[in-house]
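Ticket #4471: structure output looks truncated?

Reporter: J.K.
Steps to reproduce: submitted the chain below (297 residues) through the standard prediction queue, then opened the result file.
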Amino acid sequence: MSDRKLGYIVIALVLCVGLGAVSYIAYLGYSPMEIRTLRFNQVGSLAVEDPVRMNGTLVGSVREFVIDDDNRVLVHIHSRKPIPIRTSSRASVKVKGVMGERFVEISLGDPNDSLIPKEQIVDGIFELGPSEAISYIDLLEEKIIQLKDITALFAKGSQTKRSFIDDFSDAVIFIDSFVNTLNTGLTGIEAGLNKGLEQAADLAAKTIEFTAAVSSKTPEIIDDIDVILVKIDNLLPKIEKFVNQVETITASIDGNKYLWGGGAELEKMKTLLTNLREFTNYMREDGLPLTIKLKLW
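Returned output as attached by the reporter:
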């Protein structure tokens, strides 16, 4: 074979490789691309161009991250072929190897379940890896140090502030003193109430004793009053008879003024007799006045 023929063959091979590469690039540029959106609370070290697998098979790659209004991460994935994500499928950010390389894994789910529309966002879960565990250990150590400082502040306080334990002890002492004072006051009140109750009981006993004494004497007093009233009733006719006789004498004296003089003494006697008759009539009609009854009582 001549050198000219060999050169033609090499040129033809180069042209074929070039045309194949251009054709593949054109195919990639004009072939349809499916975009799906997954949502995670966090994604860790997941990065753009990290693979997206379905049951271990590569189906796409990560193309973009967006933070929504709730601080969750929206992961946009691109795929040359439709990804059959079903309602029972599970999307998760997994870790590979000790170095913690991240990728997205989507399970097939139940073939009998319906497919999720392309426009719908699919919620996924984030699985912790070694790097996250180490970061959480560092965070835990930091929190332990903070807890130690807070405990020391509670126990000993600071240069500008007393400790919580000292304040709590003072509060306990104050409450204990207040309770003792309150108990003392209540004891005094109880003693005063007992004394007052004893005085009230003594007064009630004396009242009962006085009432019993009055009740026992009342019949005798009533009998004495009845006797007096009978005597007064017997006396009234005698007084009335005496008044009549004196009036008769007065009338006879009135006819002989020369014997008794000007009659001033006679008029005085008439006035006394009139008052005595009025008193007698009053006694017959109304009985003894209340003041006289009380005096007799």
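Triage note (M.O.): checked the attachment and the full token line is present. The chain has a mean pLDDT of 76.
Status: closed, working as intended.
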